[in-house]
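TA notes. Do not distribute before section.
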Amino acid sequence: MSHSYSQNRLHVVFSTKERQKLIAPQMQPKLWSYMGGIARNHDFLVLANGGIEDHVHLLVQLPPTLALAKAILLLKANSSKWMKEHGIRFG
């Protein structure tokens, strides 16, 4: 019987539009937690996350059925919407 095992761990970095300092230090822990929730809701993991005012670092673990592009789209779109809901002009 054939068995396969896949573990896709990726370090992802993305910045705010034009590297503007839009992620305030007091908002960062909330944003990192929210991004972890986005991942859980879409059946993948954020193993570590962090960053500063103008960019985000994520260590994600993706299942073989989820494309990296789709995972990033989910994270960026949902976190951007969440930041806008909290009154931060975010792009």
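Switch to the second chain here.
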Amino acid sequence: MRGKKGREHLDPDDPPRRRANKRRGRGTFANDRPPVLGTVGRESGLIRLRVVKDTTMTTLTEHVHHFTREGTHLYTDEYDSYNGIDRSRSSVCHGQKEWARDDDGDGLREVHTNSAEGMWSGLRTFLRPFRGVHKDFLSGYVAIHEFRVNLKAVQVTFIALLVRAHYLYT
């Protein structure tokens, strides 16, 4: 019997089940661990999230170039697929236990990925009550979360303009 608690699993031809997040390696849509790419503006607070098929250099480059302006400086980890992105970039090396770095010597550790890590924590917290989402519907849930986060970043002046435009045209 597979997965019965308290019993040792002795059959090498029938490996025990592994939960998706405990599998080694990067996820892909094909192995039922669809990756979600995300960008977050440090100053604006706006996020852009997309469910993609894989995390190859081509996929990451297309995502970043679509959702960032030319001249944007990126802060990433050391993942090799970021190397094809045509933007200035600073990275931290988590493999060497580096989480933040002060490059310009002003006492502020500006090179970090904390904004992105917080974005992923928010997405996981949003998805948790659904107790697992099928990969075909994940993009809809991700879009709802993106909308909720970005709605909080809408400025009061923008809402005032919407209200004013509504009254001008009614």
